[in-house]
Amino acid sequence: MEQRVSFIHCADIHLDASFKGSGCESFSSERRKDLKKTFEIIINTVIEKDADFLLISGDLYEHDYTAKSTVNWLNEQFSKLGDKPVVIVPGNHDPYVKNAWYRIYPWKENVRILTTASPEYIYNAGNVYFYGIGFDTFRQEQLPDIKPPSISAEKINICLFHGTLDMDFTENPYNPSSSEELHKLGFDYYALGHFHGRNESLIEKGMIYPGSPEPLGFDEKGEHGVYLVNISKKNGEVENQYCFIPVQQRKYLEYNLDAGGIQSEEDLLKRAALLLERSSTERDIVKINLSGRISADINLDLTALKQALSDRCFSLSINDCTYPDYVLEELAKEKNITGVFINMMKEKIENACGDEKQMLEKALYIGLEALLTGKVDIS
Ligand SMILES: [Mn+2]
Prior knowledge:
The protein is α/β, with parallel strands linked by helices. Helices cover 28% and strands 24% of the residues. The protein contains 9 helices and 14 strands. The protein has helices spanning 25-48, 68-79, 101-104, 179-184, 265-277, 302-309, 328-332, 337-351, 354-373; strands at residues 2-10, 53-56, 86-88, 111-113, 120-123, 128-133, 156-162, 189-193, 207-208, 225-234, 237-246, 252-258, 285-295, 315-325. β5 and β6 form a beta hairpin. The longest helix has 24 residues, at 25-48. The chain is elongated. It starts with a strand and ends in a 6-residue tail after the last helix. Residues 12, 59, 91, 93, 194, 196 line the site of manganese (II) ion.
């Protein structure tokens, strides 16, 4: 007898994330709307692909910030799937703690939450056995004591796991385990969650980290989405097919711009505009890292530069790592504190290497600015 199922696997949506540190409240609230739009696309993808069920491998929402209105909205989204199951394992941002929405909210009947105390669900219509390893608390530095799974050859067996695999467990231990250990349990597919970068490196073992469907910061560049997985099983032989589906609203883009040698602020504006023209950045979140030595008589006004470019992307930040281009050789000859400072720093720079060298070079120019202008801007 041949069995087949198809489903969408996603994780790490982080609904109602605070986006704190991003600067302004309007940005954060727009991004929270983006997370909801992305989730609606995920629900619509389940419907369009006529998948049998939806798997969410943890960090669906952020426990600390999630409003009841968002939970009501989420439940409405789940109800669009009719009787297609939504199977969830709690992650470290939405753990199964005492007052978790997973525990206290009257979810639609098609929503199944797998917990350490009750890690199993059998979906009879598809002959599928689900088993979850997730979070009961915000930190779990080792795997919880789990009830052994009941794998059966007649069923399609799926494990939902939120945590870190194959890492040095002394650092960031979140449900630490190894792919080997999980593989030994004998599931046909492992729906992983926790890492926000999409990772197919364990695909041979039937394991995928889909990553966050909507990226949450500059450390989450590239394409983000979900997986459509097809599993067929015939006489114990399993065949899995995976298809990545991008669903993100916006991308995080980071550009490096060497501003060395610019003649004027207009010159810099032109160069930055040209850089942004290379890709369609209207919807994206862009950061420009400015570098290079700039003639000491050009005073960069970053606020004006940002304003002039602001309609070219959804959000723009400029990181200024430029240095004023002093004529060091001349200044070093001076018989005053500036000369002494330059010679002392030069000696230190010559004897340093790597990061330290870079830091000392920066310190030289910050020090020079302080000595020559009487003020220093270290923003
Ligand atoms: Mn996460």
